[in-house]
Prior knowledge:
This protein folds into two domains: 3-104, no CATH class; 108-156, no CATH class. The strands form two sheets. Strands 1-2-5-4 form a four-stranded mixed beta sheet. The protein is an alpha+beta fold. It has four helices and seven strands; from the N terminus they run αβββββββααα. Helix content is 25%, strand content 30%. The longest helix has 16 residues, at 141-156.
Amino acid sequence: MRIRTLLNDCQKFKSFVYKREYIETISGELALIVEIAERKNSRPICSCCEKTSSQYDRVSEARDDQFVPLWCYQVYFRYRRSRVNCPTCGIKIERVPWTKGKQTLTDAFKLHLARWLQSLGLPSQPLSVLPSKMGMKPESSAMAELRQRVRTRSRDASGFINLRLKER
């Protein structure tokens, strides 16, 4: 079974397809890169008003969004976003369904981390609040505290995989 088949089974996006997957070194560790492309004849969605609009151009660099780790590999979605020529908002970046705004963690990975932390008995807040805290910038005090708690708890609990959260 191919990785693309697994991803289509658990995380399928209407206007996007998984183009190819390969292994690359990121920050000194092996990572699985999954390139994503837009479907033919699909129109990009404005990130402000969430209406479909015409494509203006493409951003010069592809962005890596971290997905749920698979086996011992970190998984990243790599996609070169379009800029949208929205009639109401002007030229904006397109909205993608796997993450929000400038966050580099996918929604699925944030949910995975929230459930993992809940299984360790870490979160003092409800599960619905935690994913928004996971998407905060690394400099924020709440994110730094959460990272420290994960490192400490994962070393103390026997039998759990040591999940390392890294600033990028």
